[in-house]
Amino acid sequence: MGLTLIEKILANHSDQNSVKPGEIIDITIDVRVARDFGGANVVKNLINNGLELDDPSKTLFTFDCNPTGSDQKYAANQQYCRLYAREQGIKVYDIDAGIGTHLVIDEGIATPGSTVVSTDSHANILGAIGAFGQGMGDRDIAAAWANGKSWFKVPKSIKLTLSGKRPDNIYAKDIVLNLLNEFGANTLLGYSVEIYGEEVDKLTLDERITISSMATEMGAIILLFPPTDDIIKYSEKLSGKKIEKIAADTDANYEKEIELDFSKFQPMMSRPGHPDDVTLLNNVKKTKIDSAFIGSCTNGRYEDMVKTAEILKDRKVAPGVVLKIVPATDILWQRLLDEGIIKIFKNAGALVSNAGCAGCAAGQVGQNGPGEITLSTGNRNFAGKQGKGQVYLGSPAEVAASAVAGYITTPDEIPIKAAEFLPTGNFEKPAIKKSDNVEHPTVLEGKVWLVEKDDIDTDMIFHNRYLTITDIDKMGQYTFDNLEGWEDFSTKAEKDDIVITFKNFGAGSSRQQAVDCFRSLGVQVIIAESFGAIYERNAINAAFPILTYTDISSLELKQRDRIKVDLAKGIITNLENEKSVNIDRFSNVQMEIYKKDGLLG
Protein backbone atom coordinates (compact mmCIF):
# COMPACT_ATOMS: atom_id res chain seq x y z
CA MET A 1 0.00 0.00 0.00
CA GLY A 2 1.35 3.42 -1.00
CA LEU A 3 1.77 6.48 1.17
CA THR A 4 -0.23 9.69 1.35
CA LEU A 5 1.63 12.98 1.08
CA ILE A 6 1.88 13.51 4.84
CA GLU A 7 2.96 9.88 5.37
CA LYS A 8 5.66 10.23 2.75
CA ILE A 9 7.06 13.43 4.32
CA LEU A 10 7.09 11.91 7.80
CA ALA A 11 8.59 8.63 6.62
CA ASN A 12 11.35 10.51 4.79
CA HIS A 13 12.27 12.20 8.08
CA SER A 14 12.15 9.05 10.20
CA ASP A 15 14.16 5.86 10.28
CA GLN A 16 11.29 3.98 8.66
CA ASN A 17 10.49 3.34 5.01
CA SER A 18 6.77 3.34 5.65
CA VAL A 19 4.45 4.72 8.28
CA LYS A 20 0.74 4.38 8.92
CA PRO A 21 -1.91 6.43 10.74
CA GLY A 22 -1.81 6.16 14.52
CA GLU A 23 1.89 5.26 14.71
CA ILE A 24 4.04 7.44 16.93
CA ILE A 25 7.40 8.13 15.36
CA ASP A 26 10.42 10.35 15.87
CA ILE A 27 11.07 12.66 12.94
CA THR A 28 13.95 14.99 12.14
CA ILE A 29 12.96 18.66 12.12
CA ASP A 30 14.55 20.64 9.29
CA VAL A 31 13.59 24.11 10.55
CA ARG A 32 13.06 24.98 14.23
CA VAL A 33 11.51 28.37 14.99
CA ALA A 34 10.55 30.30 18.10
CA ARG A 35 8.77 33.64 18.00
CA ASP A 36 8.68 36.57 20.39
CA PHE A 37 5.47 34.85 21.53
CA GLY A 38 6.86 31.93 23.53
CA GLY A 39 10.49 32.37 22.52
CA ALA A 40 11.69 33.40 25.96
CA ASN A 41 10.08 30.32 27.51
CA VAL A 42 11.80 28.11 24.96
CA VAL A 43 15.16 29.52 26.04
CA LYS A 44 14.32 29.17 29.73
CA ASN A 45 13.32 25.54 29.21
CA LEU A 46 16.69 24.87 27.59
CA ILE A 47 18.68 26.65 30.28
CA ASN A 48 16.73 25.25 33.23
CA ASN A 49 17.20 21.72 31.95
CA GLY A 50 20.86 22.11 31.00
CA LEU A 51 20.21 21.48 27.29
CA GLU A 52 22.40 22.50 24.34
CA LEU A 53 21.29 23.26 20.78
CA ASP A 54 21.40 20.42 18.27
CA ASP A 55 22.14 22.64 15.26
CA PRO A 56 22.07 26.48 15.47
CA SER A 57 22.03 26.71 11.67
CA LYS A 58 18.56 25.12 11.63
CA THR A 59 17.32 27.25 14.52
CA LEU A 60 15.63 30.66 14.18
CA PHE A 61 13.92 33.41 16.12
CA THR A 62 11.17 35.41 14.39
CA PHE A 63 9.81 38.49 16.14
CA ASP A 64 6.47 38.92 14.40
CA CYS A 65 3.74 39.04 17.04
CA ASN A 66 4.69 42.46 18.35
CA PRO A 67 7.25 43.79 15.87
CA THR A 68 7.40 47.19 17.47
CA GLY A 69 8.20 46.12 21.01
CA SER A 70 5.32 48.40 22.04
CA ASP A 71 4.36 46.02 24.83
CA GLN A 72 6.92 45.87 27.65
CA LYS A 73 6.56 42.11 28.11
CA TYR A 74 7.18 41.49 24.42
CA ALA A 75 10.10 43.91 24.44
CA ALA A 76 11.66 42.09 27.40
CA ASN A 77 11.16 38.69 25.76
CA GLN A 78 12.63 39.90 22.48
CA GLN A 79 15.76 41.27 24.15
CA TYR A 80 16.18 38.10 26.22
CA CYS A 81 16.03 36.04 23.01
CA ARG A 82 18.47 38.38 21.22
CA LEU A 83 21.05 37.94 23.96
CA TYR A 84 20.71 34.16 23.86
CA ALA A 85 20.90 34.16 20.05
CA ARG A 86 24.17 36.11 20.13
CA GLU A 87 25.74 33.55 22.42
CA GLN A 88 24.50 30.57 20.43
CA GLY A 89 24.90 31.89 16.87
CA ILE A 90 21.19 31.73 16.13
CA LYS A 91 19.72 33.75 13.27
CA VAL A 92 17.21 36.39 14.46
CA TYR A 93 14.57 37.74 12.12
CA ASP A 94 14.01 40.83 14.19
CA ILE A 95 11.15 43.31 14.40
CA ASP A 96 11.88 44.65 10.92
CA ALA A 97 11.56 41.28 9.13
CA GLY A 98 7.95 40.12 9.15
CA ILE A 99 5.93 36.96 9.73
CA GLY A 100 8.11 33.92 10.41
CA THR A 101 6.07 31.35 8.50
CA HIS A 102 6.21 33.55 5.39
CA LEU A 103 9.93 34.25 5.78
CA VAL A 104 10.89 30.59 5.87
CA ILE A 105 9.05 30.12 2.57
CA ASP A 106 10.24 33.29 0.85
CA GLU A 107 13.87 32.88 1.88
CA GLY A 108 14.06 29.22 0.87
CA ILE A 109 14.62 28.03 4.43
CA ALA A 110 11.68 25.64 4.18
CA THR A 111 11.18 23.73 0.94
CA PRO A 112 8.61 21.24 -0.40
CA GLY A 113 8.82 17.99 1.55
CA SER A 114 10.60 19.55 4.55
CA THR A 115 9.54 19.66 8.20
CA VAL A 116 9.10 22.87 10.23
CA VAL A 117 8.03 23.52 13.81
CA SER A 118 7.28 26.87 15.39
CA THR A 119 5.61 28.40 18.43
CA ASP A 120 3.09 29.66 15.86
CA SER A 121 -0.21 27.73 15.72
CA HIS A 122 -0.38 28.62 12.01
CA ALA A 123 2.92 26.93 11.11
CA ASN A 124 0.77 24.61 9.02
CA ILE A 125 0.86 27.41 6.43
CA LEU A 126 3.81 25.39 5.13
CA GLY A 127 1.23 23.07 3.58
CA ALA A 128 1.04 25.69 0.81
CA ILE A 129 4.37 24.45 -0.58
CA GLY A 130 3.82 20.80 0.30
CA ALA A 131 5.88 20.91 3.49
CA PHE A 132 4.90 19.72 6.95
CA GLY A 133 4.60 22.60 9.42
CA GLN A 134 3.34 22.36 12.97
CA GLY A 135 2.74 24.75 15.84
CA MET A 136 4.01 23.62 19.22
CA GLY A 137 4.24 24.73 22.82
CA ASP A 138 7.49 26.04 24.28
CA ARG A 139 8.51 22.71 25.88
CA ASP A 140 8.04 20.90 22.56
CA ILE A 141 10.09 23.51 20.72
CA ALA A 142 12.83 23.40 23.35
CA ALA A 143 13.07 19.62 22.91
CA ALA A 144 13.24 20.01 19.12
CA TRP A 145 16.00 22.62 19.49
CA ALA A 146 17.96 20.32 21.75
CA ASN A 147 17.38 17.00 20.00
CA GLY A 148 16.79 18.00 16.39
CA LYS A 149 13.84 15.63 16.46
CA SER A 150 10.33 15.41 17.83
CA TRP A 151 7.71 12.70 18.16
CA PHE A 152 4.53 12.79 16.12
CA LYS A 153 1.48 10.62 15.76
CA VAL A 154 0.97 9.95 12.08
CA PRO A 155 -2.41 11.52 11.21
CA LYS A 156 -5.13 10.03 9.09
CA SER A 157 -5.38 11.55 5.63
CA ILE A 158 -8.29 12.93 3.63
CA LYS A 159 -8.16 13.51 -0.10
CA LEU A 160 -10.23 16.57 -0.98
CA THR A 161 -10.93 17.22 -4.66
CA LEU A 162 -12.42 20.48 -5.90
CA SER A 163 -14.06 19.66 -9.22
CA GLY A 164 -15.61 22.05 -11.67
CA LYS A 165 -14.64 25.59 -12.68
CA ARG A 166 -13.71 28.25 -10.15
CA PRO A 167 -16.22 31.13 -10.26
CA ASP A 168 -14.80 34.49 -11.33
CA ASN A 169 -15.78 36.34 -8.16
CA ILE A 170 -14.24 33.83 -5.74
CA TYR A 171 -11.06 34.92 -3.94
CA ALA A 172 -8.76 32.60 -1.99
CA LYS A 173 -10.37 33.75 1.27
CA ASP A 174 -13.75 32.82 -0.14
CA ILE A 175 -12.40 29.37 -0.96
CA VAL A 176 -11.29 28.67 2.57
CA LEU A 177 -14.46 30.17 4.06
CA ASN A 178 -16.51 27.88 1.81
CA LEU A 179 -14.47 24.98 3.19
CA LEU A 180 -15.10 26.19 6.74
CA ASN A 181 -18.80 26.43 5.93
CA GLU A 182 -18.71 22.85 4.67
CA PHE A 183 -16.63 21.25 7.41
CA GLY A 184 -17.00 23.54 10.43
CA ALA A 185 -14.44 23.72 13.21
CA ASN A 186 -14.09 20.01 14.00
CA THR A 187 -15.11 17.72 11.15
CA LEU A 188 -11.49 17.65 9.96
CA LEU A 189 -10.10 17.49 13.50
CA GLY A 190 -6.79 15.66 13.55
CA TYR A 191 -6.70 14.98 9.82
CA SER A 192 -4.12 15.86 7.22
CA VAL A 193 -6.06 17.10 4.19
CA GLU A 194 -4.59 16.97 0.69
CA ILE A 195 -6.29 19.25 -1.84
CA TYR A 196 -6.52 18.33 -5.53
CA GLY A 197 -8.27 19.49 -8.67
CA GLU A 198 -7.62 21.00 -12.07
CA GLU A 199 -8.44 24.48 -10.78
CA VAL A 200 -6.45 23.84 -7.61
CA ASP A 201 -3.32 23.34 -9.73
CA LYS A 202 -3.79 26.91 -10.99
CA LEU A 203 -3.78 28.45 -7.52
CA THR A 204 -0.87 30.79 -6.91
CA LEU A 205 1.45 30.44 -3.92
CA ASP A 206 -0.20 33.44 -2.28
CA GLU A 207 -3.62 31.85 -2.67
CA ARG A 208 -2.39 28.53 -1.29
CA ILE A 209 -0.96 30.32 1.75
CA THR A 210 -4.34 31.95 2.44
CA ILE A 211 -6.10 28.59 2.30
CA SER A 212 -3.48 26.61 4.24
CA SER A 213 -3.33 29.26 6.95
CA MET A 214 -6.85 28.42 8.13
CA ALA A 215 -6.29 24.69 8.62
CA THR A 216 -6.05 25.45 12.33
CA GLU A 217 -9.50 27.06 12.32
CA MET A 218 -10.91 23.83 10.84
CA GLY A 219 -9.17 21.67 13.44
CA ALA A 220 -7.04 20.01 10.74
CA ILE A 221 -3.41 19.11 11.32
CA ILE A 222 -2.59 20.63 7.94
CA LEU A 223 -4.06 21.46 4.52
CA LEU A 224 -1.45 20.14 2.08
CA PHE A 225 -1.10 21.22 -1.53
CA PRO A 226 1.02 18.92 -3.71
CA PRO A 227 3.77 21.23 -4.97
CA THR A 228 3.52 22.25 -8.62
CA ASP A 229 6.52 22.61 -10.94
CA ASP A 230 6.32 26.39 -10.46
CA ILE A 231 6.52 26.10 -6.68
CA ILE A 232 9.43 23.65 -6.95
CA LYS A 233 11.29 26.13 -9.18
CA TYR A 234 10.48 28.98 -6.79
CA SER A 235 11.87 27.06 -3.84
CA GLU A 236 14.93 25.91 -5.76
CA LYS A 237 15.76 29.47 -6.75
CA LEU A 238 15.46 30.72 -3.16
CA SER A 239 17.18 27.81 -1.44
CA GLY A 240 19.89 27.19 -4.02
CA LYS A 241 19.14 23.46 -3.74
CA LYS A 242 17.86 20.86 -6.14
CA ILE A 243 14.46 19.74 -4.82
CA GLU A 244 12.90 16.39 -5.60
CA LYS A 245 9.21 16.76 -6.27
CA ILE A 246 7.17 15.02 -3.59
CA ALA A 247 3.72 13.53 -4.19
CA ALA A 248 1.39 10.95 -2.72
CA ASP A 249 1.62 7.47 -4.18
CA THR A 250 -1.06 6.59 -6.71
CA ASP A 251 -2.18 3.70 -4.47
CA ALA A 252 -2.17 5.78 -1.27
CA ASN A 253 -4.80 4.80 1.29
CA TYR A 254 -7.02 7.69 2.48
CA GLU A 255 -9.39 7.58 5.43
CA LYS A 256 -11.88 9.55 3.29
CA GLU A 257 -12.08 10.90 -0.22
CA ILE A 258 -14.31 13.95 -0.58
CA GLU A 259 -15.32 15.81 -3.73
CA LEU A 260 -16.81 19.30 -3.72
CA ASP A 261 -18.19 21.22 -6.67
CA PHE A 262 -15.93 24.27 -6.99
CA SER A 263 -18.37 25.96 -9.35
CA LYS A 264 -20.92 26.28 -6.50
CA PHE A 265 -18.59 28.21 -4.17
CA GLN A 266 -19.95 31.65 -3.27
CA PRO A 267 -18.55 34.82 -1.68
CA MET A 268 -18.55 34.27 2.06
CA MET A 269 -17.77 36.06 5.31
CA SER A 270 -17.36 34.92 8.91
CA ARG A 271 -19.57 36.59 11.47
CA PRO A 272 -18.09 37.88 14.74
CA GLY A 273 -17.08 35.37 17.39
CA HIS A 274 -16.14 32.25 15.42
CA PRO A 275 -14.32 31.82 12.08
CA ASP A 276 -16.58 28.88 11.28
CA ASP A 277 -19.75 30.98 11.70
CA VAL A 278 -19.75 31.50 7.96
CA THR A 279 -22.55 33.09 5.96
CA LEU A 280 -23.10 34.33 2.44
CA LEU A 281 -21.61 37.78 1.93
CA ASN A 282 -25.02 38.94 0.73
CA ASN A 283 -26.41 38.26 4.22
CA VAL A 284 -24.14 40.83 5.85
CA LYS A 285 -24.02 43.46 3.11
CA LYS A 286 -24.61 47.06 4.21
CA THR A 287 -23.43 46.29 7.78
CA LYS A 288 -21.86 49.57 8.95
CA ILE A 289 -18.18 49.26 9.94
CA ASP A 290 -15.93 51.42 12.09
CA SER A 291 -12.61 49.96 11.00
CA ALA A 292 -10.98 47.60 8.55
CA PHE A 293 -7.78 45.58 8.56
CA ILE A 294 -5.83 44.02 5.67
CA GLY A 295 -2.90 41.74 6.49
CA SER A 296 -2.04 38.83 8.83
CA CYS A 297 -0.45 35.51 7.90
CA THR A 298 -3.65 34.75 5.96
CA ASN A 299 -3.85 37.75 3.64
CA GLY A 300 -0.68 39.81 3.87
CA ARG A 301 0.91 38.72 0.58
CA TYR A 302 1.82 40.62 -2.60
CA GLU A 303 -1.32 39.63 -4.52
CA ASP A 304 -3.46 40.73 -1.57
CA MET A 305 -1.77 44.11 -1.53
CA VAL A 306 -2.06 44.59 -5.30
CA LYS A 307 -5.77 43.81 -5.22
CA THR A 308 -6.18 46.24 -2.32
CA ALA A 309 -4.34 48.95 -4.28
CA GLU A 310 -6.52 48.40 -7.34
CA ILE A 311 -9.58 49.18 -5.26
CA LEU A 312 -8.11 52.05 -3.24
CA LYS A 313 -6.49 53.86 -6.17
CA ASP A 314 -8.05 57.30 -6.65
CA ARG A 315 -10.46 56.60 -3.78
CA LYS A 316 -10.61 57.59 -0.12
CA VAL A 317 -11.41 55.57 2.96
CA ALA A 318 -14.89 56.52 4.17
CA PRO A 319 -15.02 59.40 6.68
CA GLY A 320 -14.72 58.06 10.23
CA VAL A 321 -13.53 54.61 9.13
CA VAL A 322 -10.01 53.52 10.09
CA LEU A 323 -8.17 51.27 7.61
CA LYS A 324 -4.98 49.51 8.77
CA ILE A 325 -2.72 47.66 6.32
CA VAL A 326 0.18 45.41 7.35
CA PRO A 327 2.28 43.58 4.71
CA ALA A 328 3.51 40.14 5.75
CA THR A 329 7.25 40.71 5.27
CA ASP A 330 9.68 43.59 4.96
CA ILE A 331 10.80 42.27 1.57
CA LEU A 332 7.22 42.73 0.40
CA TRP A 333 7.01 46.14 2.11
CA GLN A 334 10.03 47.33 0.13
CA ARG A 335 8.54 46.02 -3.10
CA LEU A 336 5.27 47.82 -2.43
CA LEU A 337 7.24 50.98 -1.72
CA ASP A 338 9.24 50.68 -4.96
CA GLU A 339 6.10 50.06 -7.03
CA GLY A 340 4.21 53.03 -5.56
CA ILE A 341 1.61 50.86 -3.84
CA ILE A 342 2.37 52.21 -0.39
CA LYS A 343 1.67 55.69 -1.78
CA ILE A 344 -1.72 54.52 -3.02
CA PHE A 345 -2.51 53.22 0.47
CA LYS A 346 -1.44 56.46 2.13
CA ASN A 347 -3.27 58.65 -0.41
CA ALA A 348 -6.43 56.68 0.34
CA GLY A 349 -6.07 57.46 4.04
CA ALA A 350 -4.85 54.09 5.32
CA LEU A 351 -2.45 53.52 8.19
CA VAL A 352 0.42 51.34 6.94
CA SER A 353 2.47 49.58 9.60
CA ASN A 354 5.77 47.72 9.47
CA ALA A 355 5.62 44.05 8.53
CA GLY A 356 4.24 41.62 11.08
CA CYS A 357 1.21 39.76 12.38
CA ALA A 358 -0.64 42.97 13.28
CA GLY A 359 -3.92 42.33 15.10
CA CYS A 360 -3.26 38.83 16.40
CA ALA A 361 -2.04 38.27 19.97
CA ALA A 362 -2.47 41.94 20.85
CA GLY A 363 0.10 42.81 18.23
CA GLN A 364 1.30 46.12 16.85
CA VAL A 365 -1.93 47.24 15.15
CA GLY A 366 -5.38 45.87 14.52
CA GLN A 367 -6.94 46.07 17.98
CA ASN A 368 -10.45 47.48 18.26
CA GLY A 369 -12.45 48.94 21.13
CA PRO A 370 -15.79 48.02 22.73
CA GLY A 371 -18.69 48.44 20.32
CA GLU A 372 -16.38 48.83 17.31
CA ILE A 373 -17.25 46.84 14.19
CA THR A 374 -14.20 45.68 12.23
CA LEU A 375 -13.91 43.88 8.91
CA SER A 376 -10.63 41.94 8.80
CA THR A 377 -8.68 39.65 6.48
CA GLY A 378 -7.31 37.72 9.47
CA ASN A 379 -7.92 34.08 10.23
CA ARG A 380 -9.51 34.44 13.66
CA ASN A 381 -12.28 36.57 15.10
CA PHE A 382 -12.72 35.00 18.52
CA ALA A 383 -14.12 37.36 21.14
CA GLY A 384 -11.22 39.42 22.51
CA LYS A 385 -8.70 38.14 19.96
CA GLN A 386 -8.47 41.44 18.09
CA GLY A 387 -9.78 43.68 20.84
CA LYS A 388 -13.10 44.28 22.55
CA GLY A 389 -15.16 44.94 19.43
CA GLN A 390 -16.76 42.63 16.87
CA VAL A 391 -14.81 41.27 13.90
CA TYR A 392 -16.07 39.99 10.55
CA LEU A 393 -13.67 38.08 8.28
CA GLY A 394 -13.42 38.56 4.52
CA SER A 395 -11.04 38.85 1.58
CA PRO A 396 -8.74 41.85 0.94
CA ALA A 397 -10.86 42.95 -2.02
CA GLU A 398 -14.02 42.97 0.06
CA VAL A 399 -12.33 44.64 3.03
CA ALA A 400 -10.86 47.40 0.84
CA ALA A 401 -14.17 47.98 -0.91
CA SER A 402 -15.99 48.11 2.42
CA ALA A 403 -13.47 50.55 3.89
CA VAL A 404 -14.27 52.93 1.02
CA ALA A 405 -18.02 52.38 1.25
CA GLY A 406 -18.22 52.58 5.05
CA TYR A 407 -20.20 49.34 5.16
CA ILE A 408 -19.71 45.73 4.05
CA THR A 409 -19.86 45.48 0.28
CA THR A 410 -18.07 44.10 -2.78
CA PRO A 411 -15.68 45.80 -5.23
CA ASP A 412 -18.39 46.05 -7.90
CA GLU A 413 -20.87 47.75 -5.55
CA ILE A 414 -18.82 50.59 -4.06
CA PRO A 415 -21.16 53.60 -3.79
CA ILE A 416 -20.32 57.03 -5.18
CA LYS A 417 -20.94 58.56 -1.75
CA ALA A 418 -19.67 56.75 1.34
CA ALA A 419 -21.93 56.00 4.29
CA GLU A 420 -21.81 58.52 7.11
CA PHE A 421 -21.86 58.04 10.85
CA LEU A 422 -24.92 59.41 12.63
CA PRO A 423 -24.95 60.79 16.19
CA THR A 424 -25.46 58.01 18.73
CA GLY A 425 -26.96 60.08 21.51
CA ASN A 426 -24.54 58.48 23.94
CA PHE A 427 -23.00 61.78 25.00
CA GLU A 428 -25.98 63.79 26.18
CA LYS A 429 -25.41 65.85 29.29
CA PRO A 430 -26.51 64.04 32.45
CA ALA A 431 -29.40 65.54 34.35
CA ILE A 432 -27.38 66.21 37.51
CA LYS A 433 -27.75 69.30 39.67
CA LYS A 434 -24.75 70.18 41.82
CA SER A 435 -24.73 72.48 44.79
CA ASP A 436 -22.47 75.52 44.52
CA ASN A 437 -20.08 74.32 47.22
CA VAL A 438 -19.09 70.88 48.49
CA GLU A 439 -18.21 70.47 52.15
CA HIS A 440 -14.50 69.63 52.25
CA PRO A 441 -12.63 69.80 55.56
CA THR A 442 -9.76 72.26 55.74
CA VAL A 443 -8.13 70.52 58.71
CA LEU A 444 -6.95 66.99 57.96
CA GLU A 445 -5.53 64.29 60.21
CA GLY A 446 -3.80 61.07 59.19
CA LYS A 447 -0.71 58.92 59.37
CA VAL A 448 2.30 60.01 57.36
CA TRP A 449 4.36 58.31 54.67
CA LEU A 450 7.83 59.86 54.37
CA VAL A 451 8.93 59.35 50.76
CA GLU A 452 12.37 60.88 50.98
CA LYS A 453 13.30 61.33 47.32
CA ASP A 454 13.66 64.22 44.89
CA ASP A 455 12.34 64.26 41.32
CA ILE A 456 9.73 61.54 41.62
CA ASP A 457 8.26 61.63 38.12
CA THR A 458 4.84 60.64 36.87
CA ASP A 459 6.12 57.32 35.46
CA MET A 460 7.32 56.42 38.96
CA ILE A 461 3.97 57.45 40.39
CA PHE A 462 1.72 55.87 37.75
CA HIS A 463 3.51 54.10 34.90
CA ASN A 464 2.51 54.69 31.30
CA ARG A 465 1.60 51.03 30.82
CA TYR A 466 -1.56 51.77 32.84
CA LEU A 467 -2.64 54.87 30.95
CA THR A 468 -5.60 53.15 29.33
CA ILE A 469 -7.26 52.89 32.76
CA THR A 470 -10.01 55.50 33.04
CA ASP A 471 -11.83 54.24 36.14
CA ILE A 472 -10.43 56.06 39.20
CA ASP A 473 -11.44 53.18 41.47
CA LYS A 474 -8.98 50.93 39.61
CA MET A 475 -6.02 53.33 39.62
CA GLY A 476 -4.94 53.11 43.24
CA GLN A 477 -3.48 49.61 42.97
CA TYR A 478 -0.74 50.89 40.62
CA THR A 479 0.42 53.87 42.72
CA PHE A 480 4.23 54.00 43.05
CA ASP A 481 4.62 50.51 41.54
CA ASN A 482 7.48 51.88 39.40
CA LEU A 483 9.19 53.72 42.29
CA GLU A 484 12.10 51.71 43.62
CA GLY A 485 11.53 50.68 47.21
CA TRP A 486 7.87 51.68 47.16
CA GLU A 487 6.43 49.11 44.75
CA ASP A 488 4.11 47.73 47.45
CA PHE A 489 2.80 51.13 48.56
CA SER A 490 -0.76 50.46 47.41
CA THR A 491 -1.00 47.34 49.59
CA LYS A 492 0.20 49.21 52.69
CA ALA A 493 -1.56 52.56 52.29
CA GLU A 494 -4.56 53.29 54.51
CA LYS A 495 -7.48 55.65 54.06
CA ASP A 496 -6.70 59.24 55.20
CA ASP A 497 -2.91 58.77 54.86
CA ILE A 498 -0.71 61.79 54.15
CA VAL A 499 2.39 61.71 51.91
CA ILE A 500 5.39 63.97 52.57
CA THR A 501 8.19 64.06 50.01
CA PHE A 502 11.02 66.24 48.67
CA LYS A 503 11.59 68.43 45.59
CA ASN A 504 9.93 68.34 42.16
CA PHE A 505 7.28 65.77 42.94
CA GLY A 506 5.25 64.85 39.82
CA ALA A 507 7.85 65.85 37.24
CA GLY A 508 7.25 64.54 33.75
CA SER A 509 4.10 63.96 31.76
CA SER A 510 0.66 65.53 31.97
CA ARG A 511 -1.14 62.35 33.03
CA GLN A 512 -4.01 63.02 35.42
CA GLN A 513 -3.82 59.45 36.71
CA ALA A 514 -0.70 60.38 38.71
CA VAL A 515 -2.98 62.55 40.85
CA ASP A 516 -6.11 60.41 40.75
CA CYS A 517 -4.33 57.25 41.90
CA PHE A 518 -3.83 58.86 45.34
CA ARG A 519 -7.49 59.87 45.44
CA SER A 520 -8.33 56.25 44.60
CA LEU A 521 -6.35 55.04 47.64
CA GLY A 522 -7.92 57.60 49.96
CA VAL A 523 -4.70 59.58 50.48
CA GLN A 524 -5.77 63.01 51.81
CA VAL A 525 -2.91 65.33 50.92
CA ILE A 526 0.62 65.40 49.48
CA ILE A 527 3.17 67.80 50.96
CA ALA A 528 6.43 68.45 49.10
CA GLU A 529 9.20 71.00 48.86
CA SER A 530 8.04 71.63 45.29
CA PHE A 531 5.87 70.10 42.57
CA GLY A 532 6.18 69.67 38.82
CA ALA A 533 4.28 72.51 37.16
CA ILE A 534 1.72 70.35 35.34
CA TYR A 535 1.26 68.07 38.32
CA GLU A 536 0.53 71.08 40.54
CA ARG A 537 -2.21 72.30 38.18
CA ASN A 538 -3.70 68.80 37.82
CA ALA A 539 -3.89 68.35 41.58
CA ILE A 540 -5.40 71.77 42.29
CA ASN A 541 -7.95 71.40 39.48
CA ALA A 542 -8.97 67.97 40.80
CA ALA A 543 -9.55 69.45 44.30
CA PHE A 544 -6.79 67.19 45.60
CA PRO A 545 -4.87 68.98 48.39
CA ILE A 546 -1.17 69.64 47.82
CA LEU A 547 1.03 71.96 49.89
CA THR A 548 4.65 73.07 49.80
CA TYR A 549 7.13 73.61 52.63
CA THR A 550 10.60 75.03 53.17
CA ASP A 551 11.79 73.23 56.31
CA ILE A 552 9.87 70.77 58.47
CA SER A 553 12.84 69.15 60.23
CA SER A 554 11.75 70.54 63.61
CA LEU A 555 8.68 68.26 63.52
CA GLU A 556 11.02 65.27 64.07
CA LEU A 557 8.73 63.11 61.97
CA LYS A 558 9.03 59.34 61.89
CA GLN A 559 7.37 56.94 59.46
CA ARG A 560 3.67 56.52 60.29
CA ASP A 561 3.50 59.33 62.85
CA ARG A 562 0.05 60.85 63.08
CA ILE A 563 -0.07 64.48 61.93
CA LYS A 564 -2.57 67.29 61.48
CA VAL A 565 -2.57 69.66 58.48
CA ASP A 566 -4.43 72.98 58.38
CA LEU A 567 -4.89 73.83 54.69
CA ALA A 568 -6.18 77.38 55.27
CA LYS A 569 -3.60 78.45 57.82
CA GLY A 570 -0.65 76.45 56.49
CA ILE A 571 0.31 74.61 59.68
CA ILE A 572 1.54 71.04 60.18
CA THR A 573 1.43 69.53 63.67
CA ASN A 574 3.07 66.27 64.69
CA LEU A 575 0.44 64.84 67.02
CA GLU A 576 3.02 62.45 68.48
CA ASN A 577 5.05 65.29 70.05
CA GLU A 578 2.74 68.34 69.53
CA LYS A 579 5.41 70.19 67.55
CA SER A 580 4.14 72.48 64.76
CA VAL A 581 5.63 74.31 61.80
CA ASN A 582 4.31 76.82 59.28
CA ILE A 583 4.16 75.87 55.59
CA ASP A 584 2.62 77.47 52.50
CA ARG A 585 -1.16 77.62 52.87
CA PHE A 586 -3.82 77.20 50.20
CA SER A 587 -4.08 80.16 47.82
CA ASN A 588 -7.46 81.78 47.33
CA VAL A 589 -7.84 80.11 43.91
CA GLN A 590 -6.86 76.71 45.30
CA MET A 591 -9.38 77.06 48.13
CA GLU A 592 -12.13 78.13 45.75
CA ILE A 593 -11.56 75.12 43.48
CA TYR A 594 -11.28 72.82 46.52
CA LYS A 595 -14.65 73.96 47.84
CA LYS A 596 -16.24 73.53 44.40
CA ASP A 597 -14.95 69.93 44.33
CA GLY A 598 -12.78 70.63 41.32
CA LEU A 599 -12.36 72.98 38.40
CA LEU A 600 -15.44 71.54 36.67
CA GLY A 601 -17.54 71.46 39.81
Q: What this model shows, in words?
A:
- Strands 22-21-20-19-23-24-25 form a seven-stranded mixed β-sheet. Strands 4-3-2-5-6 form a five-stranded parallel β-sheet, sandwiched between helices. The chain has a five-stranded parallel β-sheet with strand order 16-15-14-17-18.
- The protein has three domains: 5-264, Aconitase, domain 3; 268-413, 2-Layer Sandwich (Aconitase, domain 3), CATH 3.30.499; 443-595, Aconitase, domain 4 (Alpha-Beta Barrel), CATH 3.20.19.10.
- The model has no long low-confidence stretch (mean pLDDT 93).
- It starts with a helix and ends in a 6-residue tail after the last helix.
- With 601 residues, the chain is α/β, with parallel strands linked by helices.
- The protein is elongated.
Beta-strand content bin: 15-25%
| Number of helical segments with 4 or more residues | 19
* Strand order, largest beta sheet: 22-21-20-19-23-24-25
* Multimeric status of the protein: single chain
- By CATH's scheme, which homologous superfamily of the largest domain applies? Aconitase, domain 3
Poorly predicted runs: none
Radius of gyration: 31 Å
Q: N-to-C terminal Cα separation, in Å?
A: 84 Å
Main β-sheet: number of strands, strand sense, barrel status?
7 strands, mixed
Provide the helix percentage. Answer: 25-40%
What structural class do the secondary elements suggest? alpha/beta
> What is the total domain count?
3
Shape: elongated
If you average the pLDDT, what whole number results? 93
CATH class of the largest domain: Alpha Beta
In CATH terms, what is the architecture of the largest domain?
2-Layer Sandwich
Question: How many strands in all?
Answer: 25
